[in-house]
Amino acid sequence: MWQYKLVSAERPCYNCHMPKITKDLLVGYTPDQMYELINAVELYPEFLPWCHATEVHERSDDELSATLHLVKGPVKHQIKTNNKMIPGSKISMQYVAGPFKACHGSWDFLAEGSDCRVMFNMEYQFSNKIQQMLIEPVFHPIANALIDAFQERADQVYGR
Questions:
Q1: Within 13 Å and on the Cβ side, how many CA atoms surround 152?
Q2: DSSP class of residue 73?
Q3: Domain enclosing residue 7, as ranges
Q4: The CATH number of the domain where 40 resides is what?
Q5: Residue 138 lies in a domain
Q6: Is residue 83 in a domain?
Q7: How many domains does the chain have?
Q8: Cβ neighbours of residue 84 under 8 Å, at least 6 residues apart?
């Protein structure tokens, strides 16, 4: 069973503090299962409708460098991140290239009985006001739909 709450989603403000998106989910899967699902960026185009393609530049047990090719309506962008991982526990994302001036975030996976609490945090700032005006209307629906897409994928992969 998936439960999630939007803890924070602040409207971006250019030239002020970085906006945050924070989501907290309780899922009926293990931390290892959720970590593997979210870390499998190569499979994102199979279930994230706005992810057209992915490129994995480097991968090891504790690091990943990848680019996501995102398409939503007429808006197309590439976002490259370098991720540091603690398998089954945490994925820390550091932005490298794309439409942001700055961006970083994390996925945390905590066991709660037989369930897993998944916590997603992201702070970002668009590179300029024009980028903000063009991307913001697309970015927020994608960020909010991300949780539902991972829920559906977990149910498909793990059979619940």
A1: 10
A2: T
A3: 3-150
A4: 3.30.530.20
A5: yes
A6: yes
A7: 1
A8: 62, 63, 91, 92, 94
Q: Is the pTM of this model over 0.85?
A: no
Within 8 A by CB and 6+ apart from 113, the residues are none
Domain membership of residue 160 (yes or no) is: no
**Buried b vs exposed e over 93-107: b needs ≥16 C-beta within 10 Å?**
bebeebbbeebebbb
Per-residue pLDDT of the chain (160 residues; tens, 9 = 90+): 444 444 444 444 444 567 788 888 899 999 999 999 999 999 999 999 889 999 999 999 999 999 999 887 777 888 899 999 999 999 999 998 877 788 899 999 999 999 999 999 888 887 778 777 777 777 777 777 787 788 889 999 998 7
HSE-CB of 98 using CA atoms within 13 angstroms: 26
| 155, part of any domain | no
CB distance 50 to 146 below 8 Å: no
- Residue 11 tokens, joined: 């409207």
Neighbours of 78 (CB within 10 A): 14
Q: Phi and psi dihedrals of 89, rounded to 5?
A: -130, -45
* Residue where the block lists tokens 């185009």: 45
What one-letter code names the amino acid at 55? E
